[in-house]
Design goal:
single chain, alpha+beta, Glutamine Phosphoribosylpyrophosphate, subunit 1, domain 1, Rossmann fold
């Protein structure tokens, strides 16, 4: 796993080595093992390397072809590399290294940009084809590895992280103020947008080609739409292919020249990954789990320990204390943008723990998105039944629910009931997005001191196709896979794991498995109130029923309790600081009301408070200083 950056001066001027080196130095956490730059006149590529395959100098990055015609900066792993290597050797290529990077160069020689079609893995890359004056930028199909760029009439600048782009003196650091309502609503900025004006993110499955100064982008792969419900579908028609493809995806991700392990929460997805790993490793699998002190409803370590015992793993645990709020600036720094997913805290900490023992870790990321694992999928179907209740009765239910105080436990029954009732009053698609939102339109209007962009909800509801004949579950699967998965979950996974220089691999995101999952009818994924039904059938025999059918427990953080107790003053001091208020984004009275409601136990605003804190710290780290300083 690595990080890279580069500059292509469209006006033909030479690339300044000091600027490229400064950009590359900002990415050292992504690749502490080796770093270098290659400059050929108007094009310069630089790489930081975390050595996973071929630990010798022959695998150094950026890598050049034997004749020097092609230079590749690279981040990721191509898991079918051994097969590709054999094919290339049969075609006459003599490999100089044991790295998958060299195979990518040779694939490009034979197929041009179509080489991406043969690559099975997670990656981002920048390839300079000097004889043809062509730069190829590309990102893997699911968006596991990031790639950002800035362009104007004179240059194209690109990097694995935004902070590296900001090291170039010509890249502006201006907040995209118009996106603030979108950020407050969903907690992240969806690609290709970023919260920096002029900086874009290359979408998943896309390639950017710059040939003789002309820039174009295209999708080389798009996720297949999920198949809707089929009353004639049977588990047996899909189980063999599902188990074989998932096991193959796990086996391929064991390719490594360094020690590897796995995150283990004790839930279905991570437990299933570890069970397959145990089949293909000679010794005990190293597993890693995390829990929260004094907050049993958020702590899964007992379940993880049970799975570890069942599978005889070499198990390690870490307990999080409230003082981890000190990590907030550090996490904001590594995410580059305001980012409201507080599970970045445990994801980083379990990554840090894991990195003390191994360099690579497999994860269960993607299982919920492929197989309808979230409760909101079931809620969307329940809402249709709830709407059939007479209006006056629903009004009475809403009145009762709205008076309930909100606890800070993981389940938070009152909070969840209120969100369901409020969402169920909306159209099916609007209901779904009301359940995944942080701030409602009304809350944003009260809080935000600016012109309200009416786009937060339509930005996503526009992804639903009019007159789609499929059931709602299938439609929601598509939207999740193209929004929350790449722009929240995978951003968090990448930044939180790369901060301590750990490579995280997600077998569920193997594109062959994604394509297979899309062909499985939605009623085999969500059957009645049972989420991930067919995946649970696939786990039979590998895991005990009490693990397979244990209620889903997300990777949540007890922010509600923290901000009511030990971190109450911290939240008040940061959000009501005179410098914070002077920015002019938010009304002071609205912030005070939010904090008071939370402290008094009327509402659990823990996630909303966290969102505002990340927003403020982003300003302090990236916008206020004349030169952002690494943490």
């Amino acid at each position: 796993m690595c990080g890279f950056c580069g500059i292509l001066n469209l006006d033909g001027t030479p690339v300044p080595p000091d600027v490229l080196d400064a950009m590359n130095a900002m990415l050292i956490h992504r690749g502490p093992d080796q770093g270098a730059a290659v400059i050929e006149g108007a094009c310069g590529l630089a790489n930081r390397r975390l050595a996973i395959l071929d630990l010798s100098p022959s695998g150094a990055l950026p890598m050049r072809s034997a004749d020097g015609a092609i230079t590749l900066a690279y981040n990721g792993e191509v898991y079918n590399y051994p097969d590709l290597r054999r094919t290339l050797e049969n075609d006459g290529h003599n490999f100089r290294s044991g790295s998958d990077t060299e195979a990518v160069i040779e694939l490009y020689r034979r197929h041009g940009a179509d080489c991406l079609d043969s690559m099975r893995g997670m990656f981002a890359l920048a390839l300079w084809d000097a004889p043809h004056h062509t730069l190829l930028l590309a990102r893997d199909r699911m968006g596991q590895k990031p790639l950002y760029y800035y362009q104007d009439t004179r240059r194209l600048i690109f990097a694995s992280e935004i902070k590296a782009l900001l090291c170039h003196p010509d890249v502006p650091r201006h907040p995209a103020h118009n996106l603030t309502p979108l950020l407050l609503a969903y907690g992240y900025i969806p690609a290709p947008l970023t919260f920096f004006e002029g900086i874009r993110m290359l979408p998943p499955g896309h390639a950017l080609i710059c040939r003789d100064g002309a820039i174009s982008t295209h999708a080389y792969w798009t996720p297949p739409p999920a198949v809707g419900a089929d009353s004639n579908a049977r588990d047996m028609n899909y189980l063999d292919d599902l188990t074989a493809t998932l096991e193959e995806a796990v086996r391929l991700r064991l390719l490594s020249d360094v020690p590897l392990g796995a995150f283990l929460s004790g839930g279905l997805d991570s437990s299933l990954i570890v069970a397959y790993m145990a089949r293909h490793t000679s010794g005990p699998v190293k597993t890693f789990a995390i829990g929260f002190a004094g907050e049993e409803s958020f702590d899964e370590t007992a379940h993880a320990r049970r799975v570890a015992d069942l599978l005889s793993t070499d198990h390690h645990e870490f307990i999080v204390e409230p003082d981890t709020i000190d990590l907030l600036p550090f996490l904001v720094w590594h995410h580059d943008q305001p980012f409201a997913d507080s599970s970045a805290i445990p994801t980083y900490l379990v990554s840090k723990l894991t990195r003390e023992h191994v360099t690579v870790a497999l994860t269960g990321d993607g299982g919920d998105e492929l197989f309808a694992g979230y409760e909101r999928f079931h809620a969307a179907n329940l809402a249709a039944q709830y709407r059939r209740i007479p209006g006056p009765v629903r009004g009475g239910i809403a009145a009762v629910v709205n008076r309930l105080p909100e606890t800070t436990s993981y389940k938070g029954i009152a909070r969840r009931a209120r969100r369901f009732v409020e969402g169920a009053a909306l159209s099916p698609t609007e209901a779904y997005f009301s359940w995944v939102r942080l701030f409602s339109d009304e809350q944003i209007a009260t809080l935000y001191d600016g012109v309200i962009d009416p786009a937060p909800t339509p930005h996503f509801t526009g992804l639903f196709k009019p007159n789609d004949p499929r059931d709602l579950t299938a439609q929601l699967l598509d939207v999740n896979q193209t929004t929350y998965l790449p722009d929240d979950l995978l951003i968090k996974a990448d930044r939180s794991s790369m901060a301590p220089s750990l490579e995280a691999r997600a077998p569920f995101l193997d594109h062959k498995l994604v394509e297979l999952a899309a062909r499985i009818p939605s009623n085999l994924k969500l059957r009645g109130g049972v989420t991930k039904h067919i995946l649970k059938q696939a786990a039979a025999g590998l895991l005990p029923d009490d693990i397979i059918y244990r209620p889903k427990h997300g990777f949540g953080v007890p922010l509600g309790r923290w901000f009511r107790e030990g971190l109450r003053d911290y939240a008040h001091n940061v959000l009501l600081d005179s410098g914070t208020l002077a920015r002019g984004y938010f009304h002071e009275a609205a912030i005070r009301h939010l904090l008071d409601e939370h402290t008094n136990g009327q509402r659990d605003h823990g996630q909303r408070i966290w969102t505002l804190l990340t927003f403020e710290w982003w300003h302090r780290l990236f916008i206020d200083p004349s030169t952002p300083t690494p943490l």
